[in-house]
Prior knowledge:
The complex is a heterodimer of chains A (200) and B (207).
Chain A: E1 3-7, E2 10-13, E3 17-21, H1 28-36, E4 40-42, H2 55-60, H3 64-67, H4 74-85, E5 92-96, H5 104-116, E6 120-125, E7 136-141, E8 144-150, H6 151-154, H7 158-163, H8 170-180, H9 191-198
Parallel strand pairs in A: 3-6, 3-7, 4-5, 5-6
Antiparallel strand pairs in A: 1-2, 7-8
Chain B: H1 3-7, E1 15-19, E2 31-34, H2 43-47, H3 52-58, H4 75-88, E3 93-97, H5 105-121, E4 125-129, E5 142-146, E6 151-155, H6 160-163, H7 171-181, H8 192-206
Parallel strand pairs in B: 1-4, 1-5, 2-3, 3-4
Antiparallel strand pairs in B: 5-6
Helix pairs in contact in B: 3-4
Amino acid sequence: MHELYKLNNKTIYDKNTTILYTSTFNYIEDAIFFINNHCVVITKERDDYLPIVKNEYYELFDELELKNKQDLTEIDKLKIKILSSLSSENKIYVFFNVLTYLPNKFKTKLVNYIKSQNKIIINYTTDIEETLLLEYLIVFHNEKIIMEGKKEYVLQEEKILKKLGFNLPSIVELSIGLKYYGLVNKIYFNSKELVDSLWK
Amino acid sequence: MEVAKIIENREINKIYGLIGNINLTTNNKNIGIITSGKFKGSVKEYLNSPKTLSSLKMVLLNESVLSKTANECSICELKKISLAKALIENKKYLVFNFFEKELNYKEMNYFKRLWNRLINDYQKTIIIFTNDLTNFLDILYEIIIVDKYQVINTILKKQYFSILKDTNESPIQEIINIIKAKGKNIEDYIEVNDLLKAIYRLKEQEK
């Protein structure tokens, strides 16, 4: 694993990384940094213009309806912004708490697509469930890294996460309970794997 | 879509869930839409009221934000300041536009308690507009489904999972649906603990 950037005391590696932050954090400086370092940066800030999306991306994401839609909503515009960015040659995609606004189906497809292109995703989020999407996890509070590591390890630090105001992801919380009752023998991070272990 | 049209003829002093791919607008003075929209000047200048500090306290902020400009605030702070402004202006209807998206679960629980206080003690009517109402089902009175032009349905919260299949499936619901797909007879639950007990019961029955 190589160090990619050192940003406001956060070390960003060449790995798909979630930055789980507490709600007072203002990420504008980080966003500017990434823009200046040739990353694709997606925020929820409104743009004055509507970017162009290649037809193949509308088709790939089952969003052909968006192509000629009038009266676009904020979520529609966000989808268009993201779809248009997929033609970029930049290697790193940085999302600043935007994935949480998207329908799950679109979100999963997007993450899988970017990964399949061998590009890196850095996802800033306050949503603990989104930490399951990517492999590495940095927990950030009051301008400091509180924990970092593989998500499988960090997400088992229940006490620290709760102290920061985060719950555990539902699948992890459920796994811990099922493990306690002897119904599974490890913590799961994927719903299908958990259910398959209960009923083969 | 004009919010006044959505809440027309609805009971007041209730908490409603609102689902639909729409933009919310209003020209009605009694309605406050709580967003992360930016304002001019400092927070102090924007709120500009003797009630500023008490309103900030109500939304989990304090005097430390008073000198900040909108660009210096986090999105979460902007949303909370928008709510403080609506409280100062004594809006009767408070519409929360994807408000919970920047909150952690501790803050979310606080705001759920605050909303209950606002409807009971301050005679407000609350509308929660978001893409996943699972976390709010325990406090909702009804769920309103809208499209671009009109209200297309109003449902009871117990119908949420069966009617709104196309909305965002919560992580717990995702697990429940996988269990159902295995032919197991399991109900819909909101809380992890309830799901845990249900799985335990199922496994016990299979012994």
